C-alpha cells in the first residue's frame, strides 16, 4: 500500500550494503533508507506513517529540520521561495482587513473583497504594500473532519507542486504559499480580465479572429504543461483567465491557464496510469467519460479533446455534444456528423476552423492532432488579415456584442459546497437542453440567450424561466436582470412557463 515498488532495486542494494536481513532491521533504520532512496514528500509521509503504526519511532526534531514533515494540512514542506506555516490562524473575511502571513510577518497580506468561490475554496483580492494579488483560501478546518481528507490533502499538495514547477507566461504565476491552522493560502498574480467563460457569455460567440487569438495562447500554455509531463484534466473556459487590453491599439488580451487542482504529473511515482473520472463532464474526452475505458487508463491526449470543446464553444456558443458515459455508435455518429450551427447574427465558420475542431474531437486518442501541429495549423497561422485590421477586429471582439442577450440571476443565498455542486449539474443539463452557455460568476449565474432578434421565441422564454427556477431551487429567489429591452419586454408580455418556479 506504500506505492514504493519502483524503489525495489535500490532498497535491495541498501539492505545488502547495511547487512539488513529482517524487516525489524529495516524499520529501525528506516530514516537512513528514506535518505538513500531520496523519497518524494508524500512517499516519505506514507513511509513514516507505516513505520509509526508498526511501533517504531518517527523522525526526531533534528531530522525534521533537514527534511520537514508534512504540516497539519498534509502539505509537505515547501521550497524556500514559499512562506512556512503561520503561527496563528486568521479567518478570511472579505473587506474586513483580515491579514495572513508567515510567522515572521503575520500581517504580510491584507485580504480585500471576495472575487470567486468553489467547493473547497474562496478567492480574494489581497494586498501586500502597493502590490495587489489574488489569494486562493482553502478551508482546512471542515475538510479535516471528512473521511477522505487525505485525498483532498494530496490534491492541494499536487496543485502547489505543479504551480511551483510551471513558469510560463500562459500559466498563472504562484507568488507565495502560506498556511495556518484553518486555511492554506495560495497567493497568485491577479488577472483582471476575468474568466474566459464570462467573455463567451458577453459575446455569445467569438469571431474567428478573436477565437484564433485566444486558442493560440491556450494551446501554448497547454503545450508547455505537456512538455513538463503534466496533464491539466479540467481544461474549460472557467479555468482560463483573460487579461483585458491595456488600452485601444495597445496590448492584446493575454490568456493564462489556472486551477490545477485536478492536474497530475504523468510519471510522479504514485500511479503508473491515470484512471480517475474527474474534471468537468462536458469537457471529458470519451476515454475519461466511459468508465470501462477510464479504468484502462488515459494520458495527455485527453486534454486535446477538451481543447477542441473549448474552441467549439468559443466559436459556436454552446457544446458540440450531449454528455454520454459510453462510447457507442450514437457518439461516433455525432462526432462524424459534427454540426457547426452559428447564431443568427454570426457568419459561417471557415473550413479551416471546422477542420481544426474535427482534428481534435476524435474518439481515438492517438489520432488527435498534437499541440505542436495545432499551432502550425493553417487556421491558427492564418495571416490573411492585415496587422492593423487585425488589431481593429480584436478590439471589437473584446467588447460585448450589441446583439447578445445576457441574463444574470443573483444567488440570493450563498450556496453550500453541496448546493454549488448540484447547481452546476443542473446548469449543465440546462446548457445541453437549450444550447446556450451559462456560468457561475461571483454571486450570479450569467447566461447568454442568443440574439435580441430571437427575443419573442417561446424557446428563449422557456430557457429563461427554467434558468431562474434552477437558481431559485438551490439559492433562493432573485430578480432576473436582462441587458436587452426587447427581450425584457418579451418576458414581461407573455405568461410564465408552467415549469417556472416564478416570474420576475
TrEMBL record:
Transmembrane segments: none annotated. Keywords: ATP-binding, Nucleotide-binding. ATP binds at residue 136. GO terms for molecular function: ATP binding; protein kinase activity. PROSITE patterns: PROTEIN_KINASE_ATP (PS00107), PROTEIN_KINASE_DOM (PS50011), PROTEIN_KINASE_ST (PS00108). Residues 109-380 form the Protein kinase domain. InterPro entries: Kinase-like_dom_sf (IPR011009), Prot_kinase_dom (IPR000719), Protein_kinase_ATP_BS (IPR017441), Ser/Thr_kinase_AS (IPR008271). It comes from the Eukaryota. Monomer. This is Protein kinase domain-containing protein. It comes from Zooxanthella nutricula.
Amino acid at each position: 500500500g506504500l506505492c514504493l515498488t519502483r524503489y525495489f532495486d535500490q532498497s535491495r542494494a541498501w539492505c545488502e550494503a547495511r547487512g539488513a536481513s529482517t524487516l525489524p532491521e529495516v524499520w529501525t533504520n528506516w530514516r537512513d533508507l528514506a535518505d538513500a532512496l531520496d523519497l518524494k514528500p508524500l512517499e516519505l509521509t506514507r513511509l513514516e506513517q507505516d513505520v509509526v503504526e508498526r511501533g517504531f519511532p518517527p523522525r526526531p526534531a533534528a531530522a525534521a529540520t533537514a527534511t520537514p514533515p508534512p504540516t497539519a494540512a498534509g502539505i509537505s514542506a515547501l521550497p524556500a521561495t514559499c512562506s512556512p506555516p503561520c503561527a496563528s490562524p486568521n479567518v478570511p473575511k472579505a473587506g474586513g482587513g483580515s491579514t495572513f502571513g508567515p510567522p515572521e510577518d503575520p500581517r504580510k497580506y491584507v485580504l480585500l473583497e471576495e472575487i470567486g468561490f468553489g467547493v473547497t475554496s474562496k478567492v480574494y483580492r489581497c494586498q501586500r504594500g502597493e502590490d495587489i494579488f489574488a489569494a486562493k483560501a482553502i478551508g482546512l478546518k471542515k475538510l479535516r473532519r471528512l473521511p477522505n481528507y487525505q485525498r483532498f490533502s494530496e490534491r492541494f499538495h499536487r496543485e502547489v507542486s505543479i504551480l511551483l514547477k510551471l513558469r510560463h507566461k500562459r500559466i498563472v504565476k504562484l507568488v507565495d504559499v502560506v498556511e495556518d491552522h484553518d486555511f492554506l493560502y495560495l497567493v497568485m498574480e491577479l488577472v483582471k480580465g476575468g474568466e474566459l467563460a464570462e467573455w463567451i457569455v458577453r459575446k455569445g460567440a467569438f469571431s474567428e479572429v478573436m477565437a484564433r487569438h485566444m486558442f493560440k495562447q491556450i494551446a501554448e500554455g497547454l503545450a508547455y504543461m505537456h512538455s513538463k509531463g503534466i496533464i491539466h484534466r479540467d481544461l474549460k473556459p472557467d479555468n482560463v483567465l483573460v487579461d483585458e487590453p491595456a488600452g485601444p491599439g495597445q496590448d492584446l488580451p493575454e490568456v493564462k491557464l489556472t486551477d490545477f487542482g485536478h492536474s497530475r504529473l504523468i510519471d510522479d511515482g504514485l500511479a503508473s496510469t491515470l484512471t480517475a473520472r474527474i474534471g468537468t463532464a462536458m469537457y471529458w474526452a470519451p476515454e475519461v467519460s466511459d468508465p470501462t475505458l477510464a479504468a484502462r487508463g488515459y494520458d495527455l491526449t485527453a486534454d486535446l479533446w477538451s481543447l477542441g470543446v473549448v474552441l467549439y464553444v468559443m466559436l459556436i456558443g454552446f457544446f458540440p455534444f450531449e454528455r454520454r458515459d459510453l462510447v457507442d455508435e450514437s457518439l461516433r455518429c455525432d462526432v462524424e456528423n459534427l454540426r457547426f450551427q452559428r447564431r443568427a447574427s454570426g457568419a459561417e465558420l471557415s473550413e479551416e476552423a471546422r477542420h481544426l475542431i474535427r482534428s481534435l474531437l476524435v474518439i481515438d486518442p492517438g489520432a488527435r492532432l498534437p499541440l505542436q501541429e495545432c499551432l502550425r495549423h493553417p487556421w491558427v497561422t492564418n495571416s490573411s488579415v492585415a496587422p492593423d485590421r487585425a488589431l481593429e477586429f480584436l478590439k471589437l471582439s473584446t467588447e460585448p456584442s450589441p446583439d447578445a442577450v445576457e441574463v444574470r440571476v443573483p444567488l440570493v443565498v450563498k450556496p453550500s459546497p453541496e448546493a454549488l455542486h448540484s447547481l452546476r449539474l443542473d446548469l449543465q443539463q440546462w446548457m445541453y437542453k437549450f444550447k446556450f452557455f451559462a456560468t457561475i460568476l461571483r454571486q450570479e449565474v450569467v447566461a447568454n440567450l442568443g440574439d435580441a432578434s430571437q427575443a419573442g421565441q417561446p424557446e428563449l422564454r422557456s430557457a429563461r424561466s427554467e434558468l431562474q427556477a434552477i437558481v431559485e431551487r438551490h439559492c433562493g429567489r432573485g430578480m432576473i436582470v436582462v441587458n436587452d429591452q426587447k427581450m425584457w419586454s418579451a418576458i414581461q408580455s407573455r405568461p410564465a412557463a408552467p415549469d417556472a418556479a416564478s416570474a420576475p
